[in-house]
Write a structure and sequence with these properties.
The protein has about 170 residues and is an alpha+beta fold. Helices cover about 50% and strands about 10% of the residues. The protein has 7 helices and 8 strands, in the order H-E-E-E-E-E-E-H-H-H-H-H-E-E-H. Helix 2 packs across helix 3. It is globular, with a radius of gyration of 16 Å.
Length: about 170
């Protein structure tokens, strides 16, 4: 299974981007603001649709829309491989697309031990803190221990996609 075209569009909307004159520019993922290119890049320097810039990558001149989509697809492929290797139940397309969005955002390392993966893989799983999959899913709404409205909104939209097939 792989993410659908509608799933990619959904993920692009969830991730957002910053462009100047149709060129994607580097921004700080923590605050969503463009970075000062005269200073060292901050941790979380991002370009395109959520691509965290690696130490050997140089995007100081920005990238085109097609380059941003190519980076997103490369990054998604890592997420999809992780899902393929760790989800043991059959998902329908909207569930898969929603799951790609969640894992892409929270990271595989966080997802692997989460209640979300346990609920998806085991119908009999129960966790008192998160009594069902929806609660477990929507619990991923914090940054550094504080609830963030943007993450609350994202989790609600992902859940609506997962449960109700609303892109």
């Amino acid at each position: 299974m792989q993410i659908s075209d509608k799933g990619i569009e959904f993920l692009k909307t969830m991730e957002g981007c910053i462009k100047i004159n149709d060129i994607h520019i580097i921004y700080d993922d923590k605050n969503g603001k463009p970075v000062n290119l005269n200073e060292p890049l901050p941790n979380g320097a991002t370009i395109g649709y959520g691509h965290l810039i690696k130490p050997n990558e140089d995007f100081r001149n920005g990238i085109t829309e097609s380059e941003a989509i190519n980076l997103l697809k490369q990054d998604i492929s890592t997420t999809e491989l992780f899902i393929k290797n760790n989800i043991t139940t059959i998902l329908n397309q909207n569930q898969y697309d929603a799951l790609v969005s969640l894992v892409y955002n929270i990271g595989a390392k966080n997802f692997i031990n989460s209640s979300v993966i346990k609920y998806i893989n085991n119908r009999n799983f129960y966790n008192q803190k998160y009594p069902d999959l929806e609660h477990a899913w929507k619990a991923w709404n914090q940054y550094r221990g504080k609830q963030i409205q943007g993450l609350i909104n994202r989790r609600n939209k992902e859940w609506n996609l997962y449960k109700n097939c609303i892109y």
